[in-house]
Amino acid sequence: MTPEEKSLLERTYKLAEENNKILRGLRRSNRTAIALRALYWVVIIALSYGAIYFIQPYFNTLTSMLGQNGGISGLTSDLSTLQEAANQLKAVKK
């Protein structure tokens, strides 16, 4: 093997080693990105589930109020009844 061929082979070996390091870094970065993306979606889904779990009692109360009183008209009639009761209390105080 001539000295030129030997130096060319050594340079090729160094380039191959450098490429290998770069490719390993890219692969590691890709794996990290996939793991973080999965974690991101797990957090989003968990927060959504938690929000639904937190809001559900209020939503159930609201739907039961609207369902028992006949919808919005029942709710407005309840408000008018409450307003009439407040007016009667004001009249009693005078």
How do the strands and helices of this protein lay out in sequence?
Elements: H1 3-68, H2 72-93
Description:
The chain is mainly α. It has one domain (about 5-94). The protein has 2 helices and no strands. It has helices spanning about 5-70, 70-94. The longest helix has about 70 residues, at about 5-70. The N and C termini lie far apart (about 115 Å).
Q: Treating each run of at least 4 consecutive H or I residues as one helix, how many helices?
A: 2
What would the principal axes of the Cα set say about the shape?
A: rod-shaped
The largest β sheet comes out as: none
N to C succession of SSEs: HH
Please report the total strand number as a whole number: 0
End-to-end separation: 117 Å
Which structural class is indicated by helix and strand composition?
A: mainly alpha
Percentage of residues assigned to helices = over 70%
- State the assembly state of the protein chains: single chain
Q: How would you state the average pLDDT, rounded? A: 86
Radius of gyration (Å): 36 Å
Approximately how much beta-strand content do the residues carry?
A: under 5%
Unreliable runs, pLDDT <50, ≥5 residues?
A: none
How many structural domains? Answer: 1
Can you describe this structure in just a few lines?
The chain has 94 residues and is mainly α.
